[in-house]
Amino acid sequence: MALQEHEIERLAEGVVRRGDLPLLGRDPKVTYRLGIMGGTFDPIHNGHLVAAEQAFDDLGLDVVVFMPAGRPAFKLNKKVSSGEDRYAMTLLATSDNPHFVASRFEVDRPGVTYTADTLEMLRGIYADNVELYFITGADAIADIVRWRDAGRIARLAHLVGATRPGYDLARAERAIEGSPYQFDVTYLEVPALAISSSYLRGRVSRGQSLRYLTPDAVTGYIHKHNLYGVRQTRYGSVEGDAYGRRS
Ligand code: NAP
Questions:
Q1: Residues enclosing ligand 1, CB less than 6 A?
Q2: Per residue in 168-208, pLDDT tens?
C-alpha cells in the first residue's frame, strides 16, 4: 500500500512510521529488530523507560514500541486505569526519545488483550526481515507458559525479561526450561526497576512526591486527571496557597 506523505514521520535513521507503528523492513538485505515493550503501565515510570533503553542498546534494537495492554489478561478482576489514561501517560513519557514510540495497537482492540494475538498481527504487518523482541517484566515471563497460545508466542518472538538486581530468576528459568516450547529468552538486569507502578500508586494516594520516579509530565497528568486517589498536595494541584503552604 502506498504511503501518504503525512503518514510518514522520520524517527531514528532508517526508521519511518505509519500510523503509530514504525515502518521497518524496507531493505530486504537488512535484518531489523523491533522491540515491543508490553505492560499495563499503570502508571509508566522511569524503571520502564530505563529497561527499554537498556534493551535498545544491549540487543541492538532499531526502535522500541511501548504498547499499553488494552484489557490485561490476568487483571480482569482488578481495578486498572482506563486504556486512554495509560496510553496518554505512555505517550507523554516516551515523547522525547527518538527511538521510542507509544502505540494504541492494544488499547484500541476490543476484548481481552492476549500477547499471542498481538504478536501474530504484528507478524502479519512486518516483513520477515523484521525480528520481534517482546520485552516485559521477568515476573511476567515466568508466567508465560500459562498464557494463551504460549507455543505461538515462542515461535513469533524473542523474549526479554527485565529484572531488578538481586531478583531470583530461578522461577522464570524453571518455567521456561520445563516448558514444551522453545522460548528464546534474554534477561536484563535493570537497577531502575526497584521502581514499580504499585509503589508509585501508593505514593500518589499518600500525597507523596513522584519527582525523579516518572517524568514530570506523567505526574502532571496523574494530578490533572485525579488518578490513584490523588490527594491534593504541594506536589500536584495545590492545597493551601499558591506556594503550596498548607494552612
Ligand atoms: P504484571 O503481572 O503486572 O507485571 C509483573 C511484573 O513485571 C511487575 O513487577 C511489573 O512491574 C513488571 N513489568 C510489567 N511490564 C514491564 C515492562 N514492560 N518492563 C519492565 N517491567 C515490567 O504484568 P502486566 O503488566 O499485566 O503484563 C505485562 C505484559 O504481558 C503485557 O504486555 C500483557 O499484555 C502481557 N500479558 C499477556 C498475557 C496473555 O497473553 N495471556 C497474560 C499476562 C500478561 P510494574 O507494575 O512496575 O510494571
A1: 37-40, 48, 51, 69, 72-75, 113-116, 135-137, 139-140, 147-148, 162, 193, 196-198
A2: 899 899 999 999 999 999 999 999 999 999 999 999 999 99
State the pTM of this model: 0.89
Shortest-distance atom of ligand 1 to CA 37: 18
Q: What is the 3-state secondary structure (H, E, C) of 180-236?
A: CCCCCEEEEECHHHHCCHHHHHHHHHCCCCCCCCCCHHHHHHHHHCCHHHCCCCCCC
Q: Are residues 182 and 226 in the same domain?
A: no
Note whether 184 and 159 are within 8 A (CB).
yes
Domain count, the chain: 2
- Yes or no: say if 132 and 160 are a contact pair by the CB < 8 Å rule: no
Centroid of ligand 1 to alpha carbon of 125 (angstroms): 24
**Longest CA–CA separation in the chain, Å:** 67
**β-sheet bridge partners, residue 159:** 134, 185
Are 99 and 64 contained in the same domain?
Answer: yes
